[in-house]
Write a structure and sequence with these properties.
alpha/beta, 23% strand, 34% helix, 282 residues, 8-stranded mixed sheet
C-alpha cells in the first residue's frame, strides 16, 4: 500500500458542497485520517480570511495553503510559514487596465481580501451560487483605490481574483479581452478557479509550489502526499502530489490529469477518496 502522510484538500467544489458546507461525512473521515497520523491540510485560492474557521474547528486540520500557493499558514495562530507576493511594478499597471472593465476584482493582501468600491455593483450581478456571492460581497474591505491603498500602506498582493458579469446573450462581459491581456504578461501565472473566473499570482507560484513548501516545513516527502481538487487552479498541486485525485464534478482537464476520480462534492467525494486510499472503514 502506498504511504500517505499528507493530504491537501481544495475548498470550493471539493471539500465544500454547493452550499459551501463541509459535510459531516467529510469531517468524520478527515478526523479519522488525522487520528491515524496523516496530516490533512487545506489548499485553496481563497485568502486566509476566506477559510471557514468555524467549520474547520470541527476537524483537526492545522495548516492551509492559501491564495493558490502564494501564502501558507498555521491556521490557529495565523503564523505565516511561506509567502511569495507579486511586485507592485507588475500589479499596478494590471489594476489600472482592469479598472476600465466591467469586472469584480479582489486583491488578497496579508491574508485579507480588498476590492474597489466601484466593483460592488458587479459583484451583485454575478451568476454564481448564492453562498459564494455572499462570500465575495460580505468578506471584502472596500477601498476607493487599490493602487493608492497598497502604496500608502507599503503592501504587496498575494493573489488577485477576477469575476465577470454575464451579458444578455450569455457571454461574460470583457472576459476574453482580460484573459488575453493577462496571458500576455510573463510575470504572472493565470488560471481559472471555477465559475469562469480568472486568478493570477506571481509567475512560478501555484498550489503545487505551496504543497512543496509545506511538505518541506513538515519534513514530509513529496512522494508521500496526495491532493484533491476540481478546477484549473488545482492542476499544479495534482501534478506535484504523488497521488492526484479529481472530483466527479471536476473539469475534463483535471480528470485527465488525475490518478483517481472520486465522487462529487455533493456526495462527500473527499471522504470517499480518503477512505479509498487509506483503506478506512465506513
Amino acid at each position: 500500500m502506498q504511504t500517505i502522510e499528507l493530504i491537501a484538500l481544495d475548498l470550493d467544489g471539493t471539500l465544500f458542497n454547493n452550499q459551501s458546507i463541509i459535510t459531516q461525512e467529510n469531517i468524520d473521515t478527515i478526523n479519522q485520517a488525522i487520528e491515524q497520523g496523516v496530516t490533512v491540510v487545506i489548499s485553496t485560492g481563497r485568502p486566509f480570511s476566506g477559510l471557514p474557521i468555524e467549520q474547520l474547528s470541527q476537524t483537526k486540520i492545522q495548516y492551509a495553503i492559501t491564495t493558490n500557493g502564494s501564502a501558507v499558514y498555521e491556521i490557529a495562530t495565523k503564523k505565516l510559514i511561506y509567502e511569495d507576493c507579486m511586485d507592485n511594478s507588475v500589479t499596478f499597471p494590471i489594476i489600472d487596465f482592469l479598472m476600465t472593465k466591467h469586472i469584480h476584482m479582489d486583491a488578497f493582501i496579508e491574508g485579507e481580501g480588498y476590492s474597489p468600491k466601484k466593483c460592488l455593483e458587479t459583484a451583485q450581478q454575478l451568476k454564481v451560487p448564492e453562498s459564494l456571492k455572499h462570500y465575495i460581497i460580505d468578506t471584502r474591505t472596500r477601498v476607493d483605490s487599490l493602487v493608492d491603498f497598497i502604496s500608502e500602506n507599503n503592501l504587496k498582493i498575494q493573489k488577485m481574483t477576477l469575476n465577470f458579469a454575464t451579458a444578455e446573450d450569455g457571454t461574460l462581459i470583457d472576459r476574453n479581452e482580460v484573459h488575453s491581456f493577462l496571458l500576455s504578461n510573463p510575470n504572472i501565472n493565470v488560471v481559472c478557479g471555477g465559475y469562469n473566473n480568472l486568478e493570477f499570482t506571481k509567475a512560478g507560484v501555484d498550489k503545487g509550489v505551496g504543497l512543496y513548501r509545506l511538505a518541506q516545513y513538515l519534513n514530509i516527502p513529496i512522494e508521500h502526499t496526495m491532493a484533491i481538487g476540481d478546477t484549473e487552479n488545482d492542476l499544479a498541486i495534482l501534478k506535484a502530489a504523488h497521488i492526484g485525485v479529481a472530483m466527479e464534478n471536476a473539469t475534463v482537464e483535471v480528470k485527465a490529469e488525475a490518478d483517481y476520480v472520486t465522487r462529487s462534492n455533493e456526495e462527500s467525494g473527499v471522504a470517499a477518496a480518503i477512505k479509498h486510499f487509506l483503506k478506512l472503514s465506513n
